[in-house]
Amino acid sequence: MFQSKIAGLGYYVPKNVYTNNDLTRFMETSDEWIQERTGIKERRYADRIGETTTSMGVEAAKIAIERANTTAEEIDFVIFATLSPDYYFPGCGVLLQREMGMKEVGALDVRNQCSGFVYALSIADQFIKTGMYKNILVVGSEKHSFALDFSTRGRAVSVIFGDGAGAVVLQPTTEDGKGILSTHLHSDGADAEKLAMYYPGASAGYYLEEMPEWPDVELGQMLMTKEMLEDGSAFPYMDGQAVFKKAVVKFPEVIGEALAKNNLKSTDINMLIPHQANLRISQFVQKTLGLNDDQVFNNIQKYGNTTAASVPIALCEAWEEGKIKDGDLVCLAAFGAGFTWGSALIRW
Ligand code: COA
Q1: φ, ψ for residue 196 (rounded to 5)?
Q2: For the CA of 37, the nearest atom of ligand 1
Q3: Residue of the nearest CA to atom 43 in ligand 1?
Q4: Does 2.40.10.120 match the CATH number of domain 179-192+238-347?
Q5: Can you spell out the DSSP letters for 257-298?
Q6: Using a 6 Å cutoff on CB, does residue 33 contact ligand 1?
Q7: What is 3-173's CATH topology?
């Protein structure tokens, strides 16, 4: 069995900065409300046309590939995590493979929302461990701004999310004790509807507590209707308090699971990179684990919640700032829609 290491990492965020005050142009909200509840000061939005989930992923991937001292032609598998794909199908993995001129390698999309990158990393780790692949590109990228409700009706959700991308290249390592030590993945579908975008979908709302009464929906027209846009049901739904309550339990749990598996304790962590869901959640997790400020990295203040991109963006930024050094114990952890959650423990 091989051990895998992150050989290169990169991130890309769009140039368009939207502060909390900028959002007051579209909805009734305030800088004070957003900062107090989420810690977010500003976020980035991609160009409406021309900048896509894939194109942002490509920019992050170029940096990761260069830092891994390899080339796009040498990548032998692609895993792309996103909840905001360019098309309903096919996935962004194949679009990235095309854009980057890669060989006819396998390309897999992971749709696990906020925990998508940790899931994708875990899959990549298994392929490296078995020796099946030697150079895997793992990308997390989101263009949330295309499908948020920017009216006052949607403010509880729309102020939280931002656009961006992060990427890593995974390779085998022979350095003893280095690389990904373990990954841990979980789900609980009982609350699947508490953080979700129901449409477009083939269920036509079947699982919802109050199933919509559809007027005569024609065969072939159940994905998205004009009414869904008008009544807001076309936009993401979030029961914020339910998410918060579950997240503050599952984050410490899955981090604890990773530490226990490796006979380590929370004080051994040099850097925790939590998914940037909400600064209050990260602070709660930090307190529960008894970590100091310099053991946890947060950048949600600048980028908002970028879902599958948040962990690789934060990891890369922390690394670029010199906060992750050779031999450090780094813990990645994520929680999100599904609910799904996971962790990865890495000896850098
Ligand atoms: N600006 C101003 N007021 C807002 C607002 C906004 N952006 N969004 C909601 N409000 C209002 C509500 O309308 C409500 O007003 P009312 O009391 O007059 O009805 C009030 O603020 C409280 O709303 P509520 O939804 O109960 O707020 P909350 O304290 O639960 O905070 C969240 C909302 C979303 C910030 C909070 O629940 C949260 O952080 N949850 C976790 C979300 C998360 O991490 N998601 C990512 C998942 S990976």
Answers
A1: -160, 160
A2: 35
A3: 277
A4: no
A5: HHHHHTT--GGG-SEEEE--S-HHHHHHHHHHHT--GGGB--
A6: yes
A7: Peroxisomal Thiolase; Chain A, domain 1 (3.40.47)
Q: Which residues are marked as active site?
A: 114, 275, 305
Joined together, the tokens standing for residue 2 give: 């091989």
Which atom number of ligand 1 is nearest to the Cα of residue 281?
A: 44
Distance of CA 156 from the midpoint of ligand 1 (Å): 5
- CA-nearest residue for atom 10, ligand 1, is 156
State the amino acid at position 329 in one-letter form: L
Decide whether 3-173 matches 179-192+238-347 in CATH topology: yes
Sort 145 into a burial class: Cβ within 10 Å, 0-12 / 13-18 / 19+.
buried
Residue 259 in contact with ligand 1 by CB distance below 6 A: no
Q: Which protein residue has the closest C-alpha to ligand 1 atom 11? A: 156
pLDDT digits (tens, 9 = 90+) for 30-67: 999 999 999 999 999 999 999 999 999 999 999 999 99
Domain boundaries, the chain: 3-173, 179-192+238-347, 203-234
Measured by CA distance, the residue closest to atom 9 of ligand 1 is 156
Share of the chain above pLDDT 70, in %: 99
Q: Of 30, 112, 243, 339, which is best to mutate to test ligand 1, by the most ligand atoms within 8 angstroms of its C-beta?
A: 243
Token pair 């990904």 in the structure block, residue: 180
What's CA 262's distance to the chain center, in Å?
25
Per residue in 295-321, pLDDT tens?
Answer: 999 999 999 999 999 999 999 999 999
Quote the pTM value: 0.97
Radius of gyration of the chain (CA): 20
